Amino acid sequence: MSNASDNRPWFAVRARPRGGAEAAQAVVAALFAAGSQGVQEDGDTVLTQFPPDADVEAIRAAVLDADPSADVAISPADPVDWTEGWKALIGAHELGGLAVVPPWLSEGRDPETTIVIDPGMAFGTGDHPTTRGVVRLMQGVVRAGDVVADLGAGSAVLAIAAVKLGAARVAAIEYDRDAIENAEENVVRNGVAGRVTVVEGDANVLLPLVAPVRLVLANIISSVLVELMPAIDAALAPDGDVILSGILWEERDAMLRVIAARGWRAVAEDHEDVWWSVRCVRA
Predict the structure, then answer these.
(1) The pLDDT value given to residue 82
(2) Are strands 114-116 and 98-101 parallel, antiparallel or unpaired?
(3) Which domain of life does the protein's organism represent (predicted)?
(4) Dist CA 239 CA 224 (whole Å)
(5) CB 177 within 8 Å of CB 200
(6) Which of 96, 130, 154, 188 can pair with 124 through a Cys bridge, CB separation 3.0 to 4.6 Å?
(7) How many CB atoms lie within 10 A of CB 4?
(8) Handedness of CA 79, 81, 85, 90 (dihedral sign)
(9) Is the distance from CB of 154 to CB of 200 less than 8 angstroms?
């Protein structure tokens, strides 16, 4: 076990998942399971460190088991106290009329336009391009009094954003039980507990129960989005909007064909790094 007098170098691990949003979450979970004290999302790459006695080849294997297509780089590094030091790596994200910030950067900000997210293990801290893409596309789309469904809600950042933009009621549906506590804490922290309901379960099953909805948000992965499209279409109000994310830029043309085949049309797009997000309405 490492200690303060151990002068051997630590190891910096940079992992770039290539299997989409679900693979990215699996890689982060693998790093935590291997003993990481915290991870930083830097675009499409996650960064962390391990002490000198860490089995780096086992860590590499765990990452590749989570996403066989991931790029993994391990190099010597100066130690970082991730129990506190990781906070310096997470900043505020100004996204049009809204900002997504961690709790320690929220003081003095307008609560009406600020989304405060504790960066736990749930996906959606504002540090990922897909989250930022949806928040940018939502603005000007959410109407006062809207009923919204957020599928794959993660930290509930998008559900909270919908309320800040005027939604009356949001169902934040999340399949991952480990994310529920973090989502509920974020909902309370942002003062929207009366308007956001966090629900654990399968979106295909739960979406019909909250229909009709005027806006559906779904930041998942492209294969799951395609599977959910029939349920989304059935739940959508006649004048509804859909915002899809978690899609790789290289998948854009294929997704546009799927969107057209569903009877929808793309009316706005967002592109950051390798990620693409799209707003759709019925054609």
Answers:
(1) 56
(2) parallel
(3) Bacteria
(4) 24
(5) yes
(6) 154
(7) 6
(8) positive
(9) no
Residue 8's Cβ-count burial label (10 Å; 0-12, 13-18, 19+) is exposed
In Å, how far from its chain's centre is CA 227?
A: 19
Cross-strand partners of 276: 247, 271
Q: Are 75 and 12 in contact (CB under 8 A)?
A: yes
Instruction: Please confirm whether the linkage preceding 79 is cis (ω < 30° from 0).
Output: no
Using a 10 angstrom Cβ sphere, with 0-12 exposed, 13-18 middle and 19 or more buried, the burial of residue 264 is buried
**Helix, strand, or coil (residue 281):** strand
Q: Do 201 and 151 meet the contact criterion of CB atoms below 8 Å apart?
A: no
CA 153 to chain centre: 8
Do 139 and 128 contact (CB within 8 A), yes or no?
Answer: no
Cβ–Cβ under 8 Å, residues 116 and 186? yes
Query: Which ranges of the chain have pLDDT less than 70?
Result: 1-7, 43, 78-89, 120-126
The CA-atom distances, in angstroms, between 50 and each of 36, 43, 82, 185 are 6, 21, 10, 29
Contact between residue 44 and residue 62 where contact means Cβ atoms under 8 Å apart? no
Residue 78: CB partners within 8 Å, gap ≥ 6? 9, 10
* Contact between 8 and 52 (Cβ < 8 Å): yes
First-residue to last-residue Cα distance in the chain: 61
Full-model pTM? 0.75
pLDDT at 271: 95
pLDDT for the residue 270 = 97
Beta strand segments in 96-221, E:
98-101, 114-116, 147-151, 169-174, 196-200, 213-219
Beta bridge partners of 151: 173, 218
